TrEMBL record:
It comes from the Bacteria. This is Alkaline phosphatase D family protein. CDD domains: MPP_PhoD. Pfam families: PhoD, PhoD_N. Residues 47-125 form the Phospholipase D N-terminal domain. It comes from Micromonospora parva.
Amino acid sequence: MTELDRRTLLRTGLMVGAGAAGGALLGGAGANAAPAWRPAARPVLTHGVQSGDVTADSALVWTRADRPGRMLVEVSRRPDFRGARQLRGPVLTPNGDFTGKVRLRGLPDAERLHYRVRVESLDRHGVVSEPRTGTLTTAPGRHRRRDVKFVWTGDVVGQGWGIAPDFGGMSIFRAMRQARPDFFLCSGDTVYADGPLVESVTLPDGRIWRNLVTPEKSKVAETLAEYRGQFAYNLLDEHLREFAAAVPQINQWDDHEVLNNWYPGEILDDPRYTERRVDVLAARARQAFNEWLPVPVDGPMYRRLSYGPSLDVFVLDMRTHKDPNDGNTYADPKRGLLGRQQREWLIRELKRSTATWKVIANDLPIGVVVPDGPGAQEGVAQGDPGAPAGRELEFAEVLRATHRAGVTGMVFLTADVHYSAAHHYDPSRAAVGDFTPFWEFVSGPAHAGAFGPNALDGTFGPRAAFVHAPPVANTSPAEGFQHFGEVTIDGESEALTVHLRDRDGASLWSTTLPAP
C-alpha cells in the first residue's frame, strides 16, 4: 500500500492504496476503439478501464495491458487531472493475464471523481502507454443524505447472440450509461462460457445476424485461457467499454460464468467437454472472473455495500454453495443454495442494517420456477404452492427471522430468466404467514435470447404486477425484449422508485415505494 502524507491528504482530499489481482487473450487499442493486437515500443491498454465495488471512501480500478508492465493510476476531482496524485500499482504479468487492479482509498464521499490509468514498461523506465480515463461516483457517507440512482440487469451474450455491428452491438449499455447511474449491478451471467458463437444466424424474417467471433468464443470454455476469452470478448463491444469506464460495477456470478445450471461436485455427461469435473471448470472460471472484473478477490463472494443512510446492497452468492439439482422437495435444513454461513451472515447483516432500504441482489429469483430438465429444479422454487420445501426452507428462514426482528425495506433484485417482471409477495396469499410483504423485481437479458414468462410458485404468495416477455423462446436481441431496471432513491423523502426499461431506456412500467 502506498501512503500519502497528511499534508497531501488534506490538500487533495484523496489517498490511494494498492491491491493487485490478475488476467490473457486479446490485445487492443483501449477503451474507445475496438481492441486489436498492435506491437509497439510502448505498452498498450487493450480493453479500457473499469471500476467497481465503490464505497464512501474507496474504489477498485481495473485495466489490462498487452505485455508486462507497472500499473499507474491517477485520481482527481478535476477532469484535467490538475493536482492529481499518482499511485504505483501492481506489476501486470502473464500469470494474471496482464490484468491488474488498484484499490483507491481515502476518497471523498458522494463525489464524482476522475481517474487515469497508464502502464509503464518494465524494460524501458519512463516509457508508458497512452492513458485511458474513467469516472466514478463514490457512495454517500453514513450520515449524508442524497439521491441515489443505479441500474441492474444480467445475461450478457447468451444463446448464440454475440456482438453484431450491423444491429448496433450491445446498445443497451449505451442506454444505461445515458441514465447516469451512480453504479451498475450485474445480477449474474456476466458471460456465457458455455455458449459458442457461429459467424451468422438467419433470423425468422430472413435477415442475417452476423456475430463477431473469436477462437475462445467458438467452443465451450474449458481451459483458463478460454474462460478469460469470454470476458475479453464482451469488451470488444464499444458500448460496454464506454459504459465500464463511466459507471462503477457490482458483479455477482451465476451459472453461465462456468456452464448452464452447474452445482459443486457435478460430473458432466456432455460430449462437448473433455474436462467433465465441474469443480475444475469452476475454479478456472472463478480465476478468470476475478481477473477480468473489478471485484474484490479476498473473502467470500457475498458481501454488503453501503450507500449512505438510504441504501445497503447485499450481494448474494447462490452458486458456490449450491446443492445438486433434484426435485427440490427435501426437508433437510442443512441443504440449500446459500449455505449455512452465508444464510447466517445475511440474517445477521439485515438485522444490523440501519439503511432505509435493504436491496438483496439474488441472481436466482425466489418465486419463479426455473426447471433443469424433467424432474429437476435449478432455482429456489419447485412449483408446489404448499409449505416451504427444498431450497425454499432457506428463504423461509431468512424472511421469518427478519420479520420477527422488525426489519423493513427489503427489496429483491434479480435477472436469470430473460424477461422483465415485477412480483409482489404477501403472506395473505402465501402458504406461510410469518414474513413481511416485499417486492422482487426481475430484469434482463442485457444481450441474449429472450424467454418466458415462467410459472410462479405460490409458497410465498407472489403476484405478477407486470411482465414483459417475448412471444417465442430465444427471441433474438434484434427483436427487442432486452431489459434493464433502474432504481432511484429520493434523498429527502427516501421513496424508492423502480423503472423497468427496455433496451433503449424507455420505461415499460414503474412504481414508487414510500419509505417504510
